[in-house]
Amino acid sequence: MRQRAVDGLTRQRWICDSPQQPIRQLGDKSYINFSSNDYLGLAADARLVEAMINALNTQGVGSGASHLTAGHHRAHHQLEEALAEFTGREKALVFSSGYMANLGVITALMGKDDAIFQDKLNHASLLDAAKLSDAASRRFPHLDYTALDRMLSASSSQQRLVVSDGVFSMDGDRVDGRRLADLCQQHKAWLMLDDAHGFGVLGEQGGGCAELEGLNQQQLPILVGTLGKAFGTSGAFVAGSAVLIDTLVQFSRTYIYTTAMPPAIAQATLTSLTIVQSESWRREKLNTLIAKFRQGCESLGIPLMHSTTPIQPILVGESELAVSLSEALKEAGFWITAIRPPTVPLGMARLRVTLTASHTEAQVEHLLNVLADQWSQLDAQN
Ligand SMILES: *Cc1c(COP(=O)(O)O)cnc(C)c1O
Q1: What is the 373 CA–ligand 1 centroid distance (Å)?
Q2: Contact predicate 55/245, CB 8 Å
């Protein structure tokens, strides 16, 4: 604790008084929020609110029990069927969060004679899941599939599982799913993608990396998506073969030993799913804002990362500098969190800017103007 403070790495919570939307209210202060994962602007959508209120009126608040006892409601089941159809998989299983989905899948499938191969920059929940399983755990350098190929060739483990984020949460770059699928087929390994940041955002209909790269169930047997980001609600799901899902129902501890999500959330997510599929203008608008932001930063000489997704981090380097920039932006009315070690490697601190379909072009322009000021002050100091 003390060392973290000395290093300037203490994390802090801020109390938000408004719904998740571009204007973020904290007490009597308001900020333009560029730190949200509500990529399609659905978290406070009136239709989701209405769907949830209707469900609350007919089904109450709590699910009351775990899925295998008495807590599996019709809305959960309908959501699973809708997600299976949307992703083109035989079945889907809804979890209370993405963290739990990842833990539940990996610990259910992998045991002590098995090996897990993960991208170095995979989400913490995937790394924790591997630790919790008894399998051997290996990490390959970020997006280095030649290294992965070598590791798979050298492995004699019984069951091999390759795991990757679809869109990397702190960098915004993407997996090469086709390449991974080919490698896995070649080495008889299973492939699992955690598409928390791609689901809803990528693909013509929002089907994420799997849709974008045209990966079917055979090529990508284990697909995880979350519902608390682009879908604007809460929870997560795993989609795959009937055998996979039936196995998870029997053996996935984070599915079995926890209270099912409130059915009203499942009901609201069904509404969200139809909006995600039908309102492709949200993805188009998002892409327009992403292009605008990138062009703006490029012309200002602000260092961005290799990302075409709504996650557009500005690479700063030192933690102190990232924090002071974040503070200065706050003064100017912007909410943009500094991401520091251990979430990212040492010396790679950044401002994680995320864009959403509910931002306006004017808000993005305003941000670019303020960033231009900050950057010229930095240049003057150096
Ligand atoms: C957010 C996230 C999760 C966790 O999902 P929750 O539903 O928030 O628990 C898992 N994986 C990745 C890549 C994420 O970004």
Answers
A1: 34
A2: no
Average pLDDT over residues 96-107: 98
- Tell me which CATH code domain 46-278 carries: 3.40.640.10
Q: Considering the chain, what percentage of its residues have pLDDT values greater than 70?
A: 99
For residue 191, what are its two tokens? 């492939």
Q: Do domains 2-33+280-381 and 46-278 have the same CATH topology?
A: no
SS3 per-residue string spanning 343-357: CCCCCCEEEEEECCC
Quickly tell me which residue has 């928390």 as its tokens.
Answer: 196
Ligand 1 center–CA 42 separation, angstroms: 17
Distance CA 230, CA 206 (A): 9
Q: Which residues contact 133 (CB under 8 A, 6 or more apart)?
A: 106, 107, 110, 111, 114, 116
Whether domain 2-33+280-381 has CATH 3.30.70.1150: the reply is no
Report how far ligand 1's centroid is from the alpha carbon of 24 (Å): 22
Q: What residue type is 254 in one-letter code?
A: T
3-state SS, residue 203? coil
pLDDT band at 8 (very low <50, low <70, confident <90, very high): low
Taking the domains of the chain in order of start, what are their residue ranges? 2-33+280-381, 46-278
